[in-house]
Design a protein that fits this description.
The complex is a heterodimer of chains A (578) and B (248). Chain A is rod-shaped. Chain A contains 19 helices and seven strands. Helices cover 72% and strands 8% of the residues of chain A. Chain A has helices at residues 2-21, 27-39, 44-54, 58-71, 75-91, 95-103, 112-125, 129-141, 149-165, 169-186, 189-205, 209-225, 229-245, 249-381, 384-415, 428-445, 464-480, 513-520, 539-550; strands spanning 423-427, 449-453, 459-463, 487-494, 499-506, 554-560, 564-572. With 578 residues, chain A is an alpha+beta fold. In chain A, the strands form two sheets. In chain A, strands 2-4-5-7-6 form a five-stranded mixed beta sheet. A two-stranded antiparallel sheet of chain A has the order 1-3. Chain B has 248 residues and is α+β, with helices and mostly antiparallel strands. Chain B folds into two domains: 2-125, Response regulator (Rossmann fold, 3-Layer(aba) Sandwich); 160-243, LytTr DNA-binding domain (OB fold (Dihydrolipoamide Acetyltransferase, E2P), Beta Barrel). In chain B, strands 1, 2, 3, 4, 5, 6, 7 and 8 form an eight-stranded mixed beta sheet that branches. The longest helix of chain B is centred in the middle third of the chain and has 15 residues, at 111-125. The chains are: A alpha+beta (578), B alpha+beta (248). The interface between A and B is medium-sized, with 20 and 17 residues. Chain B: The modification 4-aspartylphosphate is found at residue 55.
């Protein structure tokens, strides 16, 4: 007997879910939901959740109903959402969550009956039989149940099973038979099979074998038409147990074998399911791999883009740098070009100076040569009067050449900064006398009167040698540009305690303002002279200007054509301390 | 009054001859002509020399400067000197400049220039500049002589030959045993420059060489010098007698 009960319980538990889960596909429910979806077209979440609910996609239903709840305040829609969630949780076997959701559904809800039945089912699953009984009874008391046959049969079945567990077999038998009659009318093989099975188990538990066996047999026969392997196994095994109790072992074995056959095919199916599952997983990993590859590709693209970006910036920098350097180079080359031009100019001037100097020297030496041959000729003819004159002429030529060379030397020394320069106290009058001494023959030659009316008490603070160069050149010029019987006068004018003007006046040919300006121009080495007969390098005057500047002096020219020239040079005086 | 003795150090005979001619024309004595450094030193110590004219380059070497450097080292032996040079090469000048007092003359030079250079050398050497060319003074006083400018030339009078000096405004009468002449120098200058232990002021305008005093008559306010020169002794200046070593 013990054996019997065990078998029964085993099958009953297996059986219950299928019994309960098949109840959702109610026509009235479906119609209602489709209608509501049309009504609330704009509530995307509601529409989605109801469509997923009808498709039995429980997870998606849960998600969208949750969204619906968090967004909407519509009470009716919220009732639907709670209902969807309760059903979904029930299907996922999360009974407590399911109950929590369904309890939030209000009494006025259109599917109130369905939710009550579901609550009963949940209580049954949780083995809270008294609660289940209450729910089912509430469902029975609801007026709309009379219109909904399926709900009614469900309620009967639930009540039957509840009473069965409460061991009130009479009531259980009553309800289960009611359920069976309804099911038989509906011709739903699966559900009818469950109903038969329930009744069979009921009788079997009460040892009413005679009543139980026909139901088992009916269930077995029905199971042949049903595609559900689990039900086939259950029916076959029940038959086997029945035959075994009837000591009809041969038949029992046959049923057992049939059950095993179905179990095997169920396993096969399970295997297929597993394979499919595995394939699915494989596909998922494949997809994931693809995603990964895509990610890597994306990363690669990103790095490529970054690389391009940075290389573009680098190139831009390089370009600007290049442009900058090029500009610098252009600037530098401009400066260099400028310097080169200046140097070329200077070099040209130097070359010109060189050619003029050599030309001058050449003519001087040539004049000496011819003069010398004349001299020897005169010596032979013993014409002593002319001899003297020739010698004087020679000395004039030699002197000219010498002063040219002297200027050249000093110029070179000055340019190379090799000139020794030492300022000291000099006695102006004596120095003028000394300078004049060298020019005595020339003065005499042109019968020029030389007057030195310089104050004898003037001491200047200058470099003696450069001072002499200045006045030698000035005197030389004055004599050169003086006419016969002219006068050259040196005089002084003490401006203040620090400076003294030295004025050299001649009664020569003079010059115009242009010539003066040219002479005074800074850095102009060669001055073209209007008087082509007396050509000079301009070196002498240039030297004068530089020497005067070096001695902290100033230089001025006043001149009138054909009347004479006045040259005014200012030099610092010796400080009066001794 | 004696002529000035000039020592010439010059290796080129042409140039030394020209120099000698100028100097002789202007009443200078030639103490000698040296052609090289050794001769120069020998002549310098043997002959009486007042002024030296030194060519910087002797046989192409700057021995002239070496000579100046060597006489400069010996105290009280050095004499005024003038460098002759044909180039104003800076390097040579930088070295020559160190032999103070430094004066130089660029070749070629004319008569006036050489005379001027000699005068400058004397002035610089005895540190009494701007004397010979000014109109207020014509005498430089050294430790043993007076250098007096006379016309274009310089003359020399040994201090020990002087008997006494009489000052008349800007002039001084110098009386020696043999002669008597006038120089241009102020009393203050001359009394500053003369050795006060040797030359004594006996009167407002009289300075006497103490070595030449033969007799002193304080009562008569009279000093008798060598050669029987009678000099007035003013009361204000009698004090010097106390400082004299009185024999007897």
């Amino acid at each position: 007997m013990n054996n019997k009960i065990l078998i029964f319980l085993f099958y009953f538990i297996i059986q219950t879910p299928s019994l309960l889960f098949s109840q959702t596909d109610d026509n009235t429910e479906q119609k209602l939901l489709t209608k509501k979806a049309l009504e609330f077209k704009k509530e995307i979440n509601f529409v989605k959740s109801q469509s997923f609910y009808l498709k039995k996609d429980w997870d998606s239903t849960l998600i969208y109903s949750m969204k619906q709840l968090s967004v909407s305040k519509n009470k009716e829609l919220n009732d639907y959402a709670h209902f969807f969630r309760g059903s979904s949780f029930l299907q996922k076997k999360l009974y407590k969550e399911a109950r929590k959701e369904l309890l939030q559904v209000s009494n006025k809800f259109a599917l109130h009956l369905q939710s009550t039945i579901l609550l009963g089912t949940i209580s049954l699953e949780l083995r809270e039989f008294e609660k289940a009984k209450n729910y089912y009874n509430t469902a029975l008391s609801l007026p709309e149940i009379s219109n909904q046959i399926r709900s009614l049969s469900k309620t009967y079945e639930g009540l039957g099973i509840t009473y069965f567990f409460l061991e009130k077999y009479d009531k259980a038998e009553d309800y289960l038979i009611k359920n069976e009659t309804i099911k038989e009318k509906e011709k739903n093989d699966r559900e009818l099979l469950s109903a038969y099975n329930s009744l069979a188990n009921l009788y079997y538990v009460q040892y009413k074998d005679n009543q139980a066996i026909p139901y088992f047999r009916k269930a077995y026969l029905l199971s042949k038409n049903v595609n559900d392997l689990g039900k086939k196994i259950m029916a076959a095994e029940n038959m086997s147990a029945v035959e075994e109790n009837a000591k009809n072992y041969k038949k029992a074995l046959e049923y057992r074998k049939e059950a095993d056959k179905w179990t095997d095919s169920l396993n096969n199916q399970n295997k297929i399911w597993a394979v499919a599952d595995y394939e699915k997983k494989f596909a998922v990993t494949q997809k994931q791999k693809e995603i990964k590859v895509l990610q890597v590709e994306n990363k690669l693209k990103n790095t490529q883009r970054n690389f391009l970006f940075f290389s573009a910036i680098g190139l831009l920098l390089l370009l600007t740098g290049g442009v900058y350097l090029y500009a610098q180079k252009v600037k530098n080359s401009k400066i260099i070009l400028h310097q080169k031009n200046k140097l070329d100019e200077l070099n040209a001037t130097k070359d010109q100076l060189f050619s003029i100097v050599s030309h001058d020297l050449r003519s001087s030496v040539n004049a000496l040569k011819t003069s010398n041959s004349k001299l020897s000729a005169t010596l032979e003819s013993k014409n002593y009067d002319q001899l003297n004159q020739l010698i004087a002429q020679n000395s004039i030529i030699a002197n000219g050449a010498y002063s040219l060379l002297d200027n050249l030397l000093h110029w070179a020394l000055l340019q190379t900064k090799q000139l020794y320069f030492h300022k000291e106290s000099i006695h102006l009058y004596s120095i003028i006398q000394q300078i004049e001494f060298n020019y005595k023959p020339f003065l005499l030659d042109k019968s020029i009167t030389f007057e030195n009316s310089v104050s004898k008490n003037i001491f200047l603070f200058v470099d003696l040698d450069s001072f002499k160069i200045v006045f030698r050149n000035l005197l030389d010029n004055a004599i050169k540009f003086s006419k016969q019987n002219g006068t050259i006068t040196f005089s002084t004018n003490e401006i203040d305690s620090d400076f003294c003007e030295i004025i050299m006046e001649d009664t020569g040919i003079g010059m115009n303002q242009n010539t003066i300006n040219e002479l005074l121009q800074e850095g102009e080495l060669l001055t073209k002279k209007s008087d082509s007969e007396i050509i000079g390098t301009g070196l002498g005057l240039q030297l004068c200007k530089q020497m005067i500047k070096k001695n902290n002096g100033t230089f001025k020219i006043e001149s009138e054509l054909n009347k004479g020239t006045k040259i005014i040079v200012t030099f610092p005086k010796m400080k009066q301390n001794g | 009054m004696d002529n000035i003795n000039v020592l010439i150090i010059e290796d080129t005979p042409d140039q030394s001859d020209a120099l000698i001619k100028v100097l002789l024309d202007n009443n200078y004595n030639i103490a000698g002509v040296a052609r090289n450094f050794t001769d120069a030193l020998k002549l310098f110590y043997e002959a009486a020399v007042d002024i030296i004219i030194i060519d910087v380059f002797l046989d192409g070497k700057p021995d002239g400067i070496t000579f100046a450097e060597s006489i400069n080292i010996i105290p009280n032996a050095s004499k005024p000197f003038v460098f002759l040079t044909s180039s104003n090469d800076r390097q040579i000048f930088e070295r020559a400049k160190l032999t103070k007092p430094f004066s130089f003359l660029m070749k070629p030079f004319n008569e006036l220039e050489i005379l001027y250079a000699i005068e400058m050398a004397v002035e610089k050497f005895y540190e009494q500049t701007n004397v010979f060319l000014s109109e207020e003074q014509n005498t430089v006083i050294s430790n043993d002589s007076l250098f007096i400018k006379k016309k274009n030339s310089l003359k020399k009078v040994a201090l020990e030959d002087i008997l006494y000096i009489e000052v008349e405004e800007r002039y001084c009468n110098i009386i020696t045993e043999k002669e008597k002449f006038v120089i241009l120098i102020s009393l203050t200058k001359i009394s500053e420059l003369l050795d006060k232990s040797k030359f004594i002021k006996t009167h407002r305008n009289t300075i006497v060489n103490s070595a030449k005093i033969e007799e002193i008559f304080p009562a008569d306010n009279l000093i008798i010098l060598k050669g029987n020169h009678r000099i007035n002794l003013s009361d204000t200046y009698k004090d010097f007698i106390k400082n004299m070593n009185i024999l007897s």
